[in-house]
């Protein structure tokens, strides 16, 4: 669509010199990756052209517009929408939602800056990642929209909250390298050093989003404390998607629900609910209708196995769930649903017991049964979970957590 094919940022292994990996001195490897990062930064290679959306076939454009009329539907087919928009689903969808909520007008967003921001966000996702690409970001944004419309949220959220929720969803995996944090740490990737091995990916997604906000000056007309507040809150939302911290968020959520003390009149409580909504949106694939859910499952497993192949090739320890010889799509999915997805959605349903929530739980149960039918031996330990989706007290195994941190 007229973009430079060159990428900046976090290639999983372009920034790693595998020859020096097993030696004691990794200083050169780090320097190399920093230099590459600097050389490929957008500042040095100029500004890409704005997206020529007019090249779309008029018929496709009409069908895409038609789909947007049902953007609040849980059956929304983001894969079809992405094809109809010629791979521009994230730009189209986010722009449409910001406009539909009246946020462009309310916050006096400059259309040229906004368009440029969204195109840059979409471009900074890696198309070559089977899963962590702009279509996943668009899917999470669409799910976030569905949750924002739920009565409890719709009645209490401010326009500022909605703006943050949508922006966080659209940028939450920005510049994802297609490998997980343990991989970045064990290959001495510059991102692991930069963020001291802590929420490495999430910190990078956040800082990349802030970089694009500043580069496009999207909020430069707002008082400086407001734009700093947007940046800070965006960080707090994106960092909440770190699945290795899921128990922390989940027990806080559970305590609030047990004590029935969530007061959405308080900004801090609304922010916490937004964090939980984004977490749900991020891992809601197993709660979608089977035809959509299945495609996501295949894509995420492909990404895991690709990482496993790189690890095998470079004689690194193969990460859990990444060995294509030891795992199947079904076994990976059943574990993920049981230990990560079900506990989260069990609490979400307690918070917002609506038709949408019941629909999501229904799909979750059916999808798990479908995977179990495809792989009877993998479902042995999870059969009871099937009839009891909310095994909320169960401790996620490290296996499942490790997968979750990749999937988020
Ligand atoms: Zn994600």
UniProtKB/TrEMBL annotation:
GO terms for biological process: signal transduction. AMP binds at residues 132-136, 173, 282, 333. It comes from the Eukaryota. Pathway: Purine metabolism; 3',5'-cyclic AMP degradation; AMP from 3',5'-cyclic AMP: step 1/1. The keyword Cell membrane does not apply. Residues 372-382 have a biased composition (Low complexity). Zn(2+) 1 binds at residues 136, 172-173, 282. Zn(2+) 2 binds at residue 173. The keyword DNA repair does not apply. Residues 56-378 form the PDEase domain. Keywords: cAMP, Hydrolase, Metal-binding. Belongs to the cyclic nucleotide phosphodiesterase family. PDE7 subfamily. This is 3',5'-cyclic-AMP phosphodiesterase.
């Amino acid at each position: 669509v007229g973009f430079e094919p060159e990428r900046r940022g976090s290639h999983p292994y372009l920034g790693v010199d595998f020859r020096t990996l097993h030696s004691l001195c990794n200083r050169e490897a780090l320097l190399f990756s920093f230099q590459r990062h600097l050389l490929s930064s957008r500042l040095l290679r100029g500004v890409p052209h704005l997206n020529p959306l007019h090249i779309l076939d008029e018929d496709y454009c009409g069908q895409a517009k038609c789909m947007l009329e049902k953007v609040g539907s849980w059956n929304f087919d983001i894969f079809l929408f992405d094809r109809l928009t010629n791979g521009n689903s994230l730009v189209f969808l986010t722009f449409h939602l910001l406009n539909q909520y009246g946020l462009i007008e309310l916050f006096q967003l400059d259309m040229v800056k906004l368009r440029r921001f969204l195109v840059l966000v979409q471009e900074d996702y890696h198309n070559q990642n089977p899963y962590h690409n702009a279509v996943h970001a668009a899917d999470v944004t669409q799910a976030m929209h569905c949750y924002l419309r739920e009565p409890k949220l719709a009645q209490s959220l401010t326009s500022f909250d909605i703006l943050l929720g949508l922006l966080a969803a659209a940028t939450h995996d920005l510049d994802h390298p297609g490998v997980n944090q343990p991989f970045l740490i064990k290959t001495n990737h510059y991102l692991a050093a930069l963020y001291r091995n802590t929420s490495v990916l999430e910190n990078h997604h956040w800082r990349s989003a802030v970089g694009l906000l500043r580069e496009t000056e999207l909020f430069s007309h707002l008082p400086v404390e407001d734009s700093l507040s947007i940046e800070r809150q965006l960080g707090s939302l994106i960092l909440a998607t770190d699945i290795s911290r899921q128990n922390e968020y989940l027990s806080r959520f559970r305590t609030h629900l047990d004590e029935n003390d969530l007061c959405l009149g308080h900004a801090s409580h609304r922010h916490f609910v937004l964090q939980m909504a984004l977490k749900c949106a991020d891992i809601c694939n197993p709660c979608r209708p089977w035809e959509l859910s299945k495609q996501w499952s295949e894509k995420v497993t492909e990404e895991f196995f690709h990482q496993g192949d790189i690890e095998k090739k470079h004689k690194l320890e193969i990460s859990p769930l990444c060995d294509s010889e030891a795992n199947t799509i079904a076994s990976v999915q059943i574990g993920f649903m049981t230990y990560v997805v079900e506990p989260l959605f069990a609490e979400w349903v307690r918070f917002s017991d609506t038709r949408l929530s019941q629909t999501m739980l229904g799909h979750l149960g059916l999808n798990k049964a479908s995977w179990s039918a495809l792989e009877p031996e993998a479902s042995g330990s999870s059969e009871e979970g099937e009839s009891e989706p909310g095994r909320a007290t169960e401790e996620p195994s490290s296996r499942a957590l490790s997968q979750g941190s990749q999937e988020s």
